[in-house]
Design goal:
Largest sheet: 5 strands, antiparallel
Strand order of the largest sheet: 1-2-3-6-7
Helix content: 25-40%
Distance between the termini: 33 Å
Bound molecules: zinc ion
Structural class: alpha+beta
Oligomer: single chain
Order of helices and strands: HEEEEEEEHH
Length: 176
């Protein structure tokens, strides 16, 4: 297992469109395991492969409070089941410390494949519906800040750049 570096806004690699996974190989299983470790460590509740600079259609998620419900979505398709939208305050590991409301359809159908290579279908509402739509956007090269006003997006960018610079400083050992 390994912690993977998470790309942060406005890194252009976050705009890459992810390719479908043709076969669930050991490499994919290892990547999913590393993504879970990275997500739990962050900590976060969802992570798309795009965020760790792997441009394949793979999402990991765990909405439980005690890390007991890991979910993997490979080649996911998400279809809204209602025109009704609901605002939810979202955050993102690629946009650290920024939270804002985004409107998304409140009920969706998810079709995806698991790590066992089996296709599955589920209906989602609440946090799962929000989270899967947020992660799907990553696979399409989109970020939740794209839904905000240009002014808010600019502020988010400045704040994230500052946080990333600060983190970088903390990680570089001081040489004397
Ligand atoms: Zn995100």
């Amino acid at each position: 297992m390994a912690l993977l570096p998470i790309l942060s806004f406005p890194d252009p690699r976050l705009r890459t469109i992810a390719k479908p996974v043709s076969e669930v190989t050991d490499e994919i299983r290892q990547l999913a395991a590393d993504m879970f470790e990275t997500m739990y460590e962050a900590p976060g509740i969802g992570l798309a492969a795009t965020q760790v600079d792997q441009h394949i259609q793979l999402i990991v998620m765990d909405l439980s409070e005690d890390k007991t419900q890991p979910m993997v979505f490979i080649n996911p398709k998400v279809t809204p089941l209602t025109a009704e939208t609901q605002p939810y305050e979202e955050g993102c590991l690629s946009v650290p410390q920024i939270y804002d409301k985004v409107d998304r359809p409140s009920r969706v159908k998810i079709n995806a494949m698991g790590l066992d290579g089996q296709a599955f279908e589920m209906e989602a509402d609440g946090l799962l519906a929000v989270c899967i739509q947020h992660e799907m956007d990553h696979l399409d090269g989109k970020l939740f800040v794209d839904y905000l006003s240009p002014l808010k997006r600019q502020r988010a960018r400045e704040k994230v750049e500052k946080i990333v610079r600060q983190r970088h400083k903390e990680q570089v050992p001081v040489k004397r």
